[in-house]
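Hi, here's the filled form for the chain we discussed.

Project: internal
Contact: R.S.
Residues: 194
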Amino acid sequence: MSRECREYRETRETKIAVEFNLDEPGDIEISTPIPFFNHMLETMFLYMNSRAKVYAEEKKSVDDHHIVEDSAIVIGSALEKCLGDRVGIKRFSHQIVPMDDALVLIAVDISGRGGAFIDLSFSREAIGGLSLENVQHFIDSLAKRAGITIHVVKLRGFNDHHVVEAVFKGLGMALYDSTRIVGSGVRSLKGVLR
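And the returned structure, exactly as it came back:
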């Protein structure tokens, strides 16, 4: 049985529609007003092995913050609902991802206690319309809304494009791996992951 995740959110600032499938790879369609963010979301869903659609419209033009934040909230909400009671999932994953000069560690725990712990540094302020401060904000918002603990550490790297791409690749790989069904129970002594 495939796990289809859908969520929609509209505010005075943005309109976001997300759908993806945790168990079926396929076409990925990303449409936001931020070119580099589009590229990173496409990368993340590719490495999640997910068929995906993300549509993000900015109703009140300010900067990239609201689109990034609200996209993370909607993706996180969809993932949280899709995982349901989390019965049978692997729960943990970690990935070390190289991309040329960049080397990044990503670790996730689908714990029900969302939080992001991030150690990234950049030399540029933005790439392709994406403020690099919003890379951390995307991960933090996603983690809190989905109830996932996410650690991100830049081990090395001087090319900011490579570093960010390694982060999104690793996040996709870790989310794929941690959401696999590996048993019939909840992987917690408490008996719940919420």
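Let me know if anything looks off before we file it.
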